[in-house]
Design goal:
Blueprint lengths: L2 H7 L1 H12 L7 E5 H17 L3 E2 L10 H9 L5 E3 L2 H9 L4 E4 L10 H6 L4 E4 L2 H14 L3 E6 L20 H9 L4 E7 L4 E4 L4 E4 L1 H15 L6 E3 L9 H6 L4 E2 L10 H5 L8 E11 L2 E5 L11 E4 L6 E6 L9 E4 L8 E4 L11 E6 L7 E7 L7
Parallel strand pairs: 1-18, 2-11, 3-4, 4-5, 5-6, 6-7, 7-10
Antiparallel strand pairs: 1-12, 8-9, 12-13, 12-17, 13-16, 14-15, 14-17, 15-16, 18-19
Helix pairs in contact: 1-2
């Protein structure tokens, strides 16, 4: 999906991946993150956000919950991490990283509440009155107060399979009134997902109906005396979409793919952010005229299309056929045969935390002196 753009805009990263592989420094099924490029992308977004008075929580599930990246982003002035689930929240707590938004997209289980709330997240997103009650009770026991975001999802809104949940506009006034009676929590904002999606026909990031629902929800809450200080509008947060967040009444974005230049917009046009990550693997064997390279990093919405096999100068770009959804990704199939043990580089849309891959952070790529900062598991544990 992003191979051509990566070769065009960050060929040094592709060369670095091949060099480390041919030296035997990095194994197949390794994502390689150009840390300098990522931080440059982050600085561009931070600058645009500052001009538009938008706060940014960073999302790292796509990058494997990496604590080094998290700490670097905090040093740049980001507002905290948006932990996609309770396990990511615990990883970031252990790394000493400030929790920005937790509970969205995955609600906090009851048994995790004490540990997460003790870290004093800026906001916790809740999908229901019941979860707000649980949080309030734990806060009461711990003598804490916690700010809440309500996730809003109405009947006509868009929701990805496996992610649905939230408060409808119809039930919002009564739910907010009941939450308002709880002693140790306070509603301070609203969120939904996805608030923006890329439209191929216009080559633009555009708002979904979820944004209009958030705007209606804000009016409903203000009408019953609930003050809203955060309108969190995640999805496809990058330099191109941050002004749109402000225009539509948002206060917060949550860049994830934007940090590594891999939103769908980044495939279509040259955005300020450049590609900052590739997937490195290796040809395992050939079978009936096709090469098979080691898998492990496949994500079913990756939109992987092509792979560079061999070197950047003399290699071939071959079509990739990923495993079917019901199959384990032991291998990726390539369109032609290839030499066993040749380097293979791909660039596609990722969710590293659902893979079994390793993640290598490198610096000095653009200067021609790449150096490995560290190698981590897909869940952020340091290996080397």
């Amino acid at each position: 999906m992003f191979l051509n753009k990566t070769i065009e805009r960050n060929s040094a990263l592709v060369e670095t991946a091949i060099r480390f592989h041919q030296r035997g420094t990095l194994l197949p099924d390794t994502y390689i993150v150009d840390l300098d490029a990522l931080l440059s992308n982050a600085a561009l977004m931070k600058n645009i956000a500052g001009k538009n008075d938008i706060h940014l929580y960073f999302m790292l599930k796509q990058l494997g919950r990496n604590p080094v990246i998290a700490r670097e982003l905090m040093n740049m002035g980001f507002d905290g991490v948006v932990a996609v689930d309770f396990r990511e929240a615990m990883t970031m707590i252990d790394a000493g990283v400030k929790l920005g938004n937790v509970g969205h997209l995955v609600q906090l289980p009851k048994a995790s509440l004490k540990a997460v709330l003790a870290a004093k997240p800026e906001v916790v997103t809740v999908f229901s009155l019941e979860k707000a009650r649980e949080i309030s009770e734990v806060c009461r026991e711990m003598n804490l107060e916690q700010k809440l975001l309500l996730r809003i999802l109405d009947d006509a809104d868009f929701c990805y399979s496996g992610q649905c949940g939230g408060v409808s506009l119809e039930e919002l006034p009564s739910a907010a009134t009941e939450i308002g009676k709880l002693a140790n929590v306070q509603i301070v904002g609203l969120t939904s997902f996805p608030c923006f999606t890329y439209q191929k026909s216009t080559e633009r990031i555009e708002p979904t109906s979820n944004v209009g629902t958030l705007q209606k929800a804000e009016k409903l809450l203000k009408g019953i005396g609930v003050e809203i200080e955060q309108m969190n509008m995640p999805s496809a947060t990058c330099c191109a979409s941050i002004p749109l967040i402000r225009q539509l009444g948002g206060t917060h974005g949550e860049p994830g793919h934007g940090l590594i230049g891999t939103t769908p917009l980044h495939e279509a046009v040259n955005c300020p952010e450049i590609p900052a990550m590739v997937y490195l693997t290796e040809v395992s064997h050939n079978f009936k005229g096709r090469a098979y390279c080691y898998g492990g990093g496949h994500y079913r919405r990756s939109h992987v299309e092509n792979a560079l096999v061999g070197s950047l100068e003399q290699g071939r770009v071959l079509h990739v056929t990923p495993p079917t959804e019901e199959s384990i990704d032991y291998y990726f199939e390539l369109g032609e045969s290839a030499q066993v043990s040749e380097s293979v580089v791909m660039a596609f849309r990722t969710q590293i935390f659902v893979t079994r891959s390793q993640v290598a952070l490198v610096k000095g790529v653009s200067k021609g002196s790449p150096e490995i900062v560290g190698v981590y598991t897909a869940l952020g544990k340091r290996l080397l």
